[in-house]
Amino acid sequence: MPGDAAYDEDRMLVNPVFDPSPCFIVCCKTVPDVAIALTLARASGMPFTVRSGGHCTAGFSAGSGPLIDVKGLNSITADVANKRATVGTGCMFGTLNATLEAHGLHVPGGECETVCVGGFVQGGGLGFTSATYGMNCDNVLEMQVMLHDGSIVIANPSQNYDLWWAMRGGTGGNFGVLLSVTYQLYPLTQVSGWALAWPLSTSTDIATATQVLMLLQAKYMRGSSYSQNLTLQVLLVYQTIIDPSQPILRQPVPVFMVRGMWVGDPAAGAAAMQPLQQIEGCITQWTGTGTYRFVLDKLLNFPQDQPVLAYKKVFEDKGARFVARDLTPDEWTSILNYYLTTPNNLSYMYLEFYGGQINAYPRDQSAFIHRDTVFNAVMDVFWYVADDRLAAEKFLNGWIKLMETMWNGEMYQNYVSLNVNDYASCYWADALFGLYAVKQKYDPEHAFSFAQEVRQPMKLAPGGPGGPGPVIPLPPQLEAALAQPIVYLPTSPAG
């Protein structure tokens, strides 16, 4: 409660831009705790939120109403023989990766160790092995979910399929409280990684970076011979280390970086990066082979963090745009030149490459519909003091305007933004019709609500006795599942 010793710490989210003051916080340690929390939250008459890790980029993880904190539901039960693991919604990926690695197993997960399973999986979940194994949500065998009335359901391909479809990409907070996830796992004992860098200060540097991007587009993006083995990122960031063999610079300078993780033969991975290394000015910052956690740590932290932050408390805003076509050299150059107009040296742009198993997963088999994506372009802006916010936000908005002619109208729902008017089309496109039908079925009292929730689609056609029907036909399997009654666990209230 407000005034309790731990309240001021527990109410905060990862991004200090948001300063929520929940009327009370329920810290759940067991599944029955969640039922109690839901009862208390609904009795308050105020909109409530559910939080696992608190990383939501739009601050939806807490508000002024009750906060149901489920990070205590963090158990891991690994079935090594059958390559499965059941994971609590509050489990952090740092813990999950360490546990699975001890058994030589893996599932694609979040880069940040403190990101929790709950929100990540419901937004899709891109990881550094996703080109090989798909999005995190693509590897979900089943989910255990508590509905608005405290009843519990299991959602999988054969039972409550419609909920299973919706909660893999439909975004957390819409349908119920995710309690646990059962994942399909993969044998993985080692991967390879590397990071290449070029300076990005002069017009010549810009021309070289454009050359690299055109090569990446031609040989490394979707449909390439590397797409099943290599998950890539491009970074535009200020650093004080470009070449690890040289002294640290006194002031950060702009750097163009390419980093990637290779699943498979290390020699083949080394050969894959050689055409990039041969471009003039390339600095090989590091290459290495080891466990997934070892290589991931190198990708994120060597030769230094991206971006370099002087203080722990830093404010952040973010924009993201999916691109589904090749860009021209002039378009690439315009992006590079715009980055150099940043008002401070904290701005950080990156491209997350899709392809491989991400694009191979059938579009209609989950609510994560971004299967024709070539890459996700992301701009992160940071500032330390309130006076610098306006300039950072202006720079971010200018970048969003620049991307208007390049993006495909879709956005990654794990990078939500309050500044998106038509968020439903951006996050879910035509999957919204199915999501709304699932919402009506599993949360008929509209207990779960927030600013960018699943809402009734604006374009509806006349329907039968059940009300209006969607203009866009639903996938047959989803439509059939929606016609079936909810299957509850026998021990749950509705069971």
The CATH class of the largest domain is identified as Alpha Beta
* Cα-to-Cα separation, first versus last residue: 33 Å
Structural class: alpha+beta
Could you report the average pLDDT, rounded to the nearest whole number? Answer: 95
Unreliable runs:
461-466
Kindly identify the CATH topology of the largest domain.
Uridine Diphospho-n-acetylenolpyruvylglucosamine Reductase, domain 3
Helical residues, percent: 25-40%
Number of helices: 15
Strand order of the largest sheet: 14-11-13-12-16-17-15
Radius of gyration: 23 Å
Q: Main β-sheet: number of strands, strand sense, barrel status?
A: 7 strands, antiparallel
Q: Structurally, how many domains make up the residues?
A: 2
Strand content: 15-25%
Report the count of strand segments. 19
| Second CATH tier, the architecture of the largest domain | 2-Layer Sandwich
Shape: globular
Concise synopsis of the structure shown:
With 495 residues, the chain is an alpha+beta fold. It is built from 15 helices and 19 strands. It has a 7-stranded antiparallel β-sheet, with helices on both faces. A 5-stranded antiparallel β-sheet has the order 4-5-9-7-8. Strands 1-3-2 form a 3-stranded parallel β-sheet, covered by helices on one side.
